[in-house]
Amino acid sequence: MKALHKGTPRRMPYQWHDDAPERRRLMIWPHRSLPPVGFVWVIGLSAAGLALPLLAMLGRAVLWGLLPFAILAVAGLWAAIRASNRQGQMHEVVELSSGAMTVTRCDPGRSDRIWQGNPYWVRLELHDEPVEDYLTLTDGGRPIELGAFLSPEERRALKDELELALRQLRR
Predict the structure, then answer these.
(1) CB burial class (10 A; 0-12, 13-18, 19+) of residue 160?
(2) In this structure, how many other beta carbons lie within 10 angstroms of the beta carbon of residue 150?
(3) Which range is most confident: 6-15, 26-35, 122-131?
(4) Cβ proximity of 103 and 114 under 8 Å
(5) How much is the pTM?
(6) Which terminal residue of the chain has fewer beta carbons within 10 Å of its beta carbon, N or C?
């Protein structure tokens, strides 16, 4: 199933997998704007940009005073981008079958959180609070948030696709 979205086409941060005729799985992950190749370029260009002024100081004692700060800046940028990438490893898995719906939220450093419900009673809702197009899912019991790391447009598209999948499953 292709992602439903308006405007310019772009890859949505979720993907459907049809495991069997009556069993579907949806993988949802946060959008990553900096791929590994981009990481290399950012670090390389930052290091080169900081090295240019240091070249003018070659042969002077002040070079040794500035060098630790340049190294610290590149190391800090490296650490910040790596921490962001670790946070980007979070994902959600929605499994649909005729008798059960399971949502598993996987966060780095935490145990998985699992919600189960009956797909015939599941309702999806978009709310204006606490953020724009806050997507919740409930089967009459406790509501859970779905796609917290997605943009409002992506949550709207996800809701449309998930509702379509639920309608097809209920037939």
Answers:
(1) middle
(2) 22
(3) 122-131
(4) yes
(5) 0.70
(6) C
